Amino acid sequence: MDHIDEDVSHIDDMLPTTLSEGGNSYYSYDDFSFFDMREEHEKQIRRNSVRKSHCQNQLYFYQKYIYKAINNCDGTGGYRGLVGRANVGNRENSHISVSKKEARVVFKYHHIILKLPGEYKQDFVTYDNEKCELFGLDSINHKNVTTKFTREMKDVQRFLTKGAHSIMKNFPVPKVFNVNNHACVGLEETIRIMAGHHGLFGFAWDGRTQMPNRDGLNGTKAVADLVNDIFDAMKSDGLSDASIRETHIGWVYFWSDSFLRCFVKQKDNSVWILTVTICPPLSEINSGRYTHVLAMGKSSEDHTSVIEYYYREVKKLMKGFHTYFGATNEIRCMSVGCLFHSSDRPERQFVTNTRKEGHFGKCSNYSYCVDFEKLSACKECYKKSFSTFFLIIIVQNIANAINILVGLLIQMIHCKKAYQSQRITLWDQTK
């Protein structure tokens, strides 16, 4: 598997013969297509090209699945493929990889480079090169090692961090998008990538054993009510009882707050962050490994649309979605629901659009979510809206004045006719 022919006609041909001809079923590359969150125009290798590029997230976890299927203790398949593609400088080469030992050495080297501050990175590379020259290791040819540990910092960056075919550029990460001037990543994609790396969640309902888990928060009434709501959501979506029992059911909770990145002009320089914690097991609940940043933006921006976006997404995830679990090396259905949204009092009052109360200080925020198109915040937009409002009032007043004049005119005409008819009647009586 370390040296696979690059001329293989299809990516699934890299699957070992022992797997493809065995009695057990196996997954194909297309079975991991739920990792591909790209738009259609992003899938092209270049503009106006018919050929499509590989999704690096999908390729990473498919290679991990293959190597783990060969050896259940080997979870390095995805990283071995990343190193192989970075070595040859071709991120589209899906049939190349390196040995497990070589990938482990590259990972440690990679880890040290990322940990070191900027001014020490070059010192470490220089030290490593001079050490190899001292022992004469630079002149030894190792046929089984394909990685070239470069001597210059620019080559290290091209191989590890900044190059188009580098390890970090093609490492599995969620797609970043914009919601009301906030940098956001998808909750569903975040869960799938985390599950692909390990998937050791503390589910409230285990779909493999079909048994509930009552450790920690899973034993509370809030989680029991949430599980019942998820059952109802999946039933309303048409899933059978057997499919629901085989689904992993978990929970997430959100947390949001603002932070100061500097103490100059605090109001203009604070940063707002929204995080999610994905059903950690009881032993890892305080480790922080199950908490991820979902959105980030300026504190002065309106965060309502961002929070509503994730509330809608987690409501959709209650109906279930398929994902790959790296720990068990299988694709299963998973469902999550929102347990609560945690925040301090000022943040909670902002999210719920309630006013701050007290004996001192001024009240801030709104008692209702304001429509900024009708009630603008800046002065220019306010003047524009105000002038439009007055123009509408003037037009309405002119219309009302015309209606009044027309009404008076009609009334005068009727009065004149009635007066003339009355005079004629009186004249006839005098005769």
Count of separate DSSP helical elements: 13
Structural class call reads alpha+beta
Helix content: 40-55%
> How many DSSP E strands?
9
Cα Rg? 33 Å
Shape from CA axes?
extended
Instruction: Write out the strand line-up for the largest beta sheet, numbering strands in chain order.
Output: 1-2-7-6-5-9-8
| Number of domains as seen in the coordinates | 3
Give the strand content: 5-15%
Largest sheet properties: 7 strands, mixed
The unreliable regions are 1-9, 16-23
- Order of helical and strand elements: HHHHHHEEHEEHHEHEEHEEHH
Quick recap of the structure?
The chain is an alpha+beta fold. The protein has a seven-stranded mixed β-sheet, sandwiched between helices. α2 crosses α3 and α3 packs across α4.
Walk me through the structure.
- It is built from 13 helices and nine strands.
- With 431 residues, it is an alpha+beta fold.
- The protein has three domains: 11-170, no CATH class; 176-351, no CATH class; 374-407.
- A hairpin with a 4-residue loop joins strand 3 and strand 4 (211-212).
- It is extended.
